[in-house]
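Example record for the data management plan.
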Amino acid sequence: MAVTINGTTGIETNTDTGKIKVGASDDLVIERKTDDHSYINNSSGRLRIQGDDIRIEKADGSEFMAKFTADGSAELYHDDVKTFETISEGARVQGNEGASAVLELWADQGDDNADKWRLVSDQSSNYFYLQNYAAGSFETSIRALGNGNVELYFDNSLKFKTDSAGVQVYGAVIVDDGSATGNRISVGGAGDLKIYHESDNSYISNDTGHLIINSSATTNVDIMKAGHSEYMARFIPDGAVQLYYNNINVFSTTGAGIACGEIRSQTTYNATTSNSANMYIHSDPYVIYRSTSSIKYKDNVTTLTDADADKILNCRPVTYTSKCDIDDSNEIHYGLIAEEVKDVDSRLVVFEGTEPENVKYDRFVPHLINLVKRLTDEVDTLKTEKTKLQTDLTALTARVAALEAA
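Corresponding structural encoding:
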């Protein structure tokens, strides 16, 4: 092999496999091998390439592959496009004009899909992505927008998102069993509102102010059985508050008061009084009223006629047993039959529509007073007549006795 030193072209060898050796022990070797590759081999010490502006270029000098600038950046290129460079704060990865910037991180030599992750600065949406390759294609784990939202994903499905008002959750928020001071959801500067599950019970605890539940003007607030299968209470805007028993509405507020089924109160039952009853339940619309006898509630007051009072003597007193579920079916009751009383005087009967339902027993009292007064007058008359007869009899007895004595 011949070596030629040419002042124009430099050092030349005349074969394809020539070497240039430098150093006493051939420590630096520059060679061209038969595999059509060129090599620089340093066998001892360091191989230093020094310069203020070092560039690695394509063979014809038309493209950069790397650039190294003294006191500045180190740049790496892909197809003559800079994709990586060092900066004073660290490093920068950048995409081509009109393309995204991607940095892939592979663990364990990337021999499993789950080893592969990448960071993406997306050119079209301006979003930043953290993505994984576990499913065999890249899926999003985190997505963020400058001056905008941050999103968290599970298996490529959005689950959590920040926005200008706070956060949005897509799915469930799961908190382990806790307490008022343990695992919980806390709201307020001092954690005034707490939501937590402890042992077998769930709690909503408010420490300050009022606990207020709001809804829109057209949306109900419902309290339901687990599984949403039954109502327990409903709160209707501009309408009723409804309470339920076994999914049946048994109590409702109305514009006039309340509407309900049975009313049971052991406390009321035990609070006894000697006053007379003064409550009345109307047959339609089943409203409870307080009865009153004051003149201030009365008009067109007239004295009860004897003819009206005499009518009640046509009523038939009866004994009977009750068919009502709440009554003892063997107990003997005393009373009147509403249908019969209606034929005597319909004013003494409460109607359910057009059908007689109840007898107004209290309305019999004024008639009985009328009858008793009239009977009392007759008794007084009879007493007067009896006294006169006794006086006449005494005088007559005296005269008879006088005649007999003569």
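Summary line stored alongside the record: The chain has four helices and 31 strands.
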